[in-house]
């Protein structure tokens, strides 16, 4: 028998967390058909000498809800070994929707997830109204990787409550019953879960809070009851626990979260976990709450990141330090090249450095108030601003910060910032780790990742495209935490692979992937780990309508395989498009058979 594909001479990490084995693999009809030696001939053979072979990586927290309807490449996730991505996080999405609400949902996604509205308007086909219709639209388009979709709270609320769906409106019992019915319909059609967002930082492009941000516990529990009797589906939530209003709000908001996940009929749930500077110990309180829920029989997890969650600042980005300065605002409309030419003029530089910035979080703007707080406290914030250069280092010390560099040069923080943003012809990026870097180290990140209820997530792939590029999390975890870290303990490679594969597959109930095992889906990575390296983030203008986004590549991926087809070969995306929509419940049942 001649097999479809054979991988030879690799060190196989099967995703279970155990030690690797030296073995070959053969693939037929998109599944792993044998693991061992002497496995016969194949139409194509990949020599994995010097490489590790892993299951394909899973990303449980992306925002490709729009991009997946027009983009078959699915970058940047495909560049980092991801073979399955979950869309529909944080309560924002595009279904169900009436034609009259298209613009409203675009404005919502543009504000919350920093995806250009012009790109969404041009890219979205809107060939759906119901959530099952949306799944059919996703299913109709082949792509490099598999995706699964959650039904999201904000569009659901808008669809049911129409003009009454503003953040401070309470849903009636009839509204809740209808939302529950639509969620059940979505789950039965293959939705992999339901998500809600409760963050003060999430605003529409018009500066309004999101429709579901103030939903009551009664509304959330009523919706969660849609899961009763089902054997698939997860619940997801993001919340900042009203931190901008008061640190004392945590117990009340946590009570809402508790009621929500307990009402989910025993289905697993997750919530985002990160360390916030304004409440540096709140993450520990969240973990205590999660531990109590698990003791009460609720499968509650925390989604954690393998590094700081930060933003990039620069003249090409959504934000930069001079966006509120009057002199800069006068040239903000100019092309980058012309802006940089003006900014290189010593007189213009002196003018800007003599000014105080205007407020940027004005009424009607999606810019969160924290942006003005940071601009006002720039002397302090600059202690946590870093250049990443061509060899990105995300765990730097204070001496390497913009403030440290300013002290070394004997200039002000603002002058150091100015000289940095115009470097490389205005294409230089400054990294600001907003979360998970309060103590300027990753010791707390390590503690989070090692918690038994932790799941690697929060990459936000496809979102915050003008400020963030964290879809590279898998490459970072695999390289930095297993080989490169010198400032503290590392993570064993078998465990790192497990965190990116079977941990996530098991949580989602995807029993056809996440491990290298005969009969499972042939989603695999062949990685030259010794030469795995993150490239510097860079801005490209490849979204519909010429919209910009940050991309970050990596070297070292010999091959990424989806359903037995090579979608990445030596770092380059191929023409293969085996990726499909996962219909939760339906495909899981087939896999179990």
Automatic annotation (TrEMBL):
<feature type="domain" description="Amidohydrolase 3">
    <location>
        <begin position="44"/>
        <end position="568"/>
    </location>
</feature>
<dbReference type="Pfam" id="PF07969">
    <property type="entry name" value="Amidohydro_3"/>
</dbReference>
<dbReference type="InterPro" id="IPR050378">
    <property type="entry name" value="Metallo-dep_Hydrolases_sf"/>
</dbReference>
<protein>
    <submittedName>
        <fullName>Amidohydrolase family protein</fullName>
    </submittedName>
</protein>
<dbReference type="InterPro" id="IPR011059">
    <property type="entry name" value="Metal-dep_hydrolase_composite"/>
</dbReference>
<dbReference type="InterPro" id="IPR013108">
    <property type="entry name" value="Amidohydro_3"/>
</dbReference>
<dbReference type="InterPro" id="IPR032466">
    <property type="entry name" value="Metal_Hydrolase"/>
</dbReference>
């Amino acid at each position: 028998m001649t097999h479809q594909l054979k991988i030879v001479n690799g060190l196989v990490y099967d995703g279970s967390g155990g030690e690797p084995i030296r073995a070959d693999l053969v693939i037929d009809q998109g599944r792993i058909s044998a693991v061992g030696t002497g496995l016969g001939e194949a139409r194509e053979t990949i020599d994995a000498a010097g490489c590790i072979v892993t299951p394909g990586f899973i990303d449980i927290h992306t925002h490709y809800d729009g991009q997946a309807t027009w983009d078959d490449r699915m970058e940047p996730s495909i560049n980092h070994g991801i073979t399955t991505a979950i869309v529909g996080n944080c309560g924002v999405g595009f279904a169900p929707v009436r034609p009259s609400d298209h613009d409203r949902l675009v404005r919502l996604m543009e504000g919350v997830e920093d995806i250009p509205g012009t790109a969404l308007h041009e890219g979205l086909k809107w060939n759906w109204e119901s959530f099952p219709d949306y799944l059919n639209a996703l299913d109709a388009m082949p792509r490099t990787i598999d995706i699964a979709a959650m039904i999201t709270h904000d569009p659901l609320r808008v669809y049911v409550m129409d003009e009454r769906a503003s953040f401070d409106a309470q849903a009636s019992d009839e509204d809740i019953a209808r939302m529950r019915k639509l969620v059940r319909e979505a789950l039965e059609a293959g939705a992999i879960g339901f998500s809600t967002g409760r963050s003060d930082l999430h605003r529409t492009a018009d500066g309004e809070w999101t429709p579901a941000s103030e939903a009551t516990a009664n509304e959330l529990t009523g919706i969660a009851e849609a899961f009763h009797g089902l054997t698939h589906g997860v619940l997801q939530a993001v919340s900042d626990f009203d931190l901008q209003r008061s640190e004392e709000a945590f117990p009340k908001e946590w009570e809402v979260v508790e009621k929500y996940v307990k009402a989910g009929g025993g289905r697993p749930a997750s919530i985002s976990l990160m360390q916030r500077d304004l409440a540096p110990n709140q993450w520990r309180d969240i973990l205590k709450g999660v531990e109590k829920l698990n003791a009460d029989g609720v499968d509650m997890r925390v989604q954690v990141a393998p590094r700081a969650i930060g933003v990039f600042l620069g003249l090409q980005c959504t934000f930069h330090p001079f966006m509120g300065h009057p002199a800069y605002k006068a040239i903000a409309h100019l092309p980058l090249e012309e802006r940089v030419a003006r900014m290189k003029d010593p007189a213009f530089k002196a003018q800007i450095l003599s000014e105080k910035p205007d407020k940027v979080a004005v009424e009607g703007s999606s810019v969160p108030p924290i942006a003005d707080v940071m601009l006002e406290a720039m002397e302090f914030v600059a202690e946590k601003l870093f250049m990443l250069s061509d060899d990105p280092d995300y765990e730097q010390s204070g001496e390497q910060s913009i403030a440290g560099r300013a002290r070394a040069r004997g200039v002000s923080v603002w002058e150091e910032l100015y000289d940095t943003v115009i470097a490389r012809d205005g294409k230089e990026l400054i990294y600001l780790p907003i979360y998970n870097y309060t103590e300027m180290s990753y010791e707390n990140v390590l503690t989070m990742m090692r918690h038994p209820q932790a799941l690697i997530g929060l990459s936000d792939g496809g979102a915050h495209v003008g400020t963030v590029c964290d879809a590279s999390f898998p490459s970072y975890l695999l390289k930095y935490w297993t080989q490169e870290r010198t400032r503290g303990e590392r993570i064993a490679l078998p465990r790192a692979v497990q965190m990116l594969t079977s941990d996530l597959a098991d949580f989602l109930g995807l029993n056809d992937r996440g491990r290298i095992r005969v009969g499972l889906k042939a989603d695999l990575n062949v990685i030259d780990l010794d030469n795995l390296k993150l490239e510097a983030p860079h801005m490209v203008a490849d979204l519909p309508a010429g919209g910009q986004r940050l991309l970050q590549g990596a070297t070292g991926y010999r091959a990424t395989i989806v359903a037995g087809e090579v979608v990445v070969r030596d770092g380059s995306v191929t023409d293969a498009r085996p990726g499909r929509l996962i219909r939760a419940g339906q495909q899981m049942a087939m896999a179990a058979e």
